[in-house]
Specification:
Length: 131
Protein backbone atom coordinates (compact mmCIF):
# COMPACT_ATOMS: atom_id res chain seq x y z
CA UNK A 1 0.00 0.00 0.00
CA UNK A 2 1.55 3.31 -1.06
CA UNK A 3 -0.62 5.66 1.02
CA UNK A 4 -1.99 4.19 4.28
CA UNK A 5 -3.43 7.54 5.43
CA UNK A 6 -5.51 7.83 2.24
CA UNK A 7 -6.72 4.26 2.90
CA UNK A 8 -7.67 5.29 6.48
CA UNK A 9 -9.67 8.28 5.22
CA UNK A 10 -11.30 6.26 2.43
CA UNK A 11 -12.43 3.54 4.84
CA UNK A 12 -14.07 6.19 7.04
CA UNK A 13 -15.64 7.94 4.02
CA UNK A 14 -17.02 4.63 2.67
CA UNK A 15 -18.38 3.57 6.08
CA UNK A 16 -20.13 6.94 6.51
CA UNK A 17 -21.67 6.78 3.03
CA UNK A 18 -22.91 3.23 3.73
CA UNK A 19 -24.32 4.33 7.15
CA UNK A 20 -22.20 1.83 9.08
CA UNK A 21 -22.00 2.20 12.85
CA UNK A 22 -18.44 0.82 13.25
CA UNK A 23 -15.39 0.64 10.99
CA UNK A 24 -12.18 -1.33 11.61
CA UNK A 25 -8.88 0.03 10.27
CA UNK A 26 -5.34 -1.42 10.50
CA UNK A 27 -3.42 0.56 13.12
CA UNK A 28 -0.32 2.73 12.93
CA UNK A 29 0.92 5.59 15.10
CA UNK A 30 -0.18 8.24 12.58
CA UNK A 31 -3.65 6.69 12.25
CA UNK A 32 -3.97 6.59 16.06
CA UNK A 33 -3.20 10.32 16.21
CA UNK A 34 -5.69 11.11 13.43
CA UNK A 35 -8.35 9.06 15.27
CA UNK A 36 -7.61 10.88 18.55
CA UNK A 37 -8.07 14.27 16.86
CA UNK A 38 -11.32 13.19 15.16
CA UNK A 39 -12.64 12.08 18.57
CA UNK A 40 -11.53 15.24 20.40
CA UNK A 41 -13.20 17.46 17.78
CA UNK A 42 -16.47 15.48 17.92
CA UNK A 43 -16.42 13.86 14.47
CA UNK A 44 -16.53 10.27 15.81
CA UNK A 45 -18.42 8.79 18.75
CA UNK A 46 -15.66 6.61 20.24
CA UNK A 47 -12.66 4.52 19.32
CA UNK A 48 -10.69 1.57 20.66
CA UNK A 49 -7.18 0.36 19.87
CA UNK A 50 -7.09 -3.44 19.65
CA UNK A 51 -3.61 -4.98 19.95
CA UNK A 52 -4.14 -8.18 18.02
CA UNK A 53 -1.72 -9.80 15.59
CA UNK A 54 1.45 -8.09 14.41
CA UNK A 55 -0.12 -4.69 13.76
CA UNK A 56 -3.40 -4.39 15.61
CA UNK A 57 -6.37 -2.36 14.45
CA UNK A 58 -8.49 0.63 15.38
CA UNK A 59 -12.22 0.18 15.94
CA UNK A 60 -14.06 3.47 15.30
CA UNK A 61 -17.72 4.10 16.17
CA UNK A 62 -19.06 6.68 13.72
CA UNK A 63 -21.26 9.55 14.88
CA UNK A 64 -24.70 10.35 13.43
CA UNK A 65 -27.37 12.89 14.38
CA UNK A 66 -29.98 11.14 16.58
CA UNK A 67 -33.11 12.27 14.68
CA UNK A 68 -32.05 13.02 11.11
CA UNK A 69 -29.41 10.23 10.96
CA UNK A 70 -27.01 12.58 9.13
CA UNK A 71 -23.31 11.81 9.68
CA UNK A 72 -21.04 14.16 11.67
CA UNK A 73 -18.41 13.79 8.92
CA UNK A 74 -19.81 15.37 5.78
CA UNK A 75 -16.52 15.58 3.92
CA UNK A 76 -13.07 14.10 4.59
CA UNK A 77 -10.33 14.73 2.05
CA UNK A 78 -6.61 13.91 1.78
CA UNK A 79 -4.49 16.98 0.93
CA UNK A 80 -0.84 15.93 1.05
CA UNK A 81 0.11 12.71 -0.72
CA UNK A 82 3.37 10.75 -0.96
CA UNK A 83 3.85 11.99 -4.53
CA UNK A 84 3.09 15.64 -3.78
CA UNK A 85 3.61 16.81 -0.22
CA UNK A 86 1.69 19.95 0.78
CA UNK A 87 3.30 22.12 3.44
CA UNK A 88 1.95 25.29 5.03
CA UNK A 89 3.73 27.86 7.13
CA UNK A 90 2.00 29.53 10.04
CA UNK A 91 1.12 32.55 7.86
CA UNK A 92 -0.42 30.34 5.11
CA UNK A 93 -2.26 27.92 7.39
CA UNK A 94 -5.51 26.79 5.67
CA UNK A 95 -8.93 27.60 7.11
CA UNK A 96 -11.52 24.94 6.33
CA UNK A 97 -15.04 26.32 5.72
CA UNK A 98 -13.95 29.62 7.26
CA UNK A 99 -13.17 27.92 10.59
CA UNK A 100 -16.14 25.52 10.75
CA UNK A 101 -14.06 22.50 9.68
CA UNK A 102 -10.58 21.38 10.67
CA UNK A 103 -7.32 20.80 8.85
CA UNK A 104 -5.08 18.17 10.43
CA UNK A 105 -1.41 19.17 10.30
CA UNK A 106 1.71 17.10 11.02
CA UNK A 107 4.19 19.41 12.78
CA UNK A 108 7.31 19.20 14.88
CA UNK A 109 4.94 19.38 17.89
CA UNK A 110 3.07 16.26 16.70
CA UNK A 111 -0.18 15.85 14.79
CA UNK A 112 -2.45 18.81 15.60
CA UNK A 113 -5.30 20.85 14.10
CA UNK A 114 -4.86 24.09 12.16
CA UNK A 115 -6.14 26.18 15.09
CA UNK A 116 -3.61 24.64 17.48
CA UNK A 117 -0.83 25.18 14.92
CA UNK A 118 -1.74 28.87 14.69
CA UNK A 119 -1.61 29.31 18.48
CA UNK A 120 1.73 27.45 18.69
CA UNK A 121 2.98 29.44 15.67
CA UNK A 122 4.23 26.36 13.79
CA UNK A 123 3.74 25.13 10.24
CA UNK A 124 3.87 21.62 8.83
CA UNK A 125 2.48 19.12 6.38
CA UNK A 126 -1.28 19.43 5.74
CA UNK A 127 -2.59 15.87 6.08
CA UNK A 128 -6.35 16.28 5.49
CA UNK A 129 -9.46 18.46 5.72
CA UNK A 130 -12.52 17.36 7.72
CA UNK A 131 -15.94 18.98 7.95
Amino acid sequence: MTDPIADFLTRIRNAVSANHKVVEIPASNMKKELTRILFEKGYILSYKFVEEGPQGYIKIALKYHPESKKPAIKHIERVSSPGLRQYAGVDKMPRVLNGLGIAIISTSHGVITDKEARTLKVGGEVICYVY
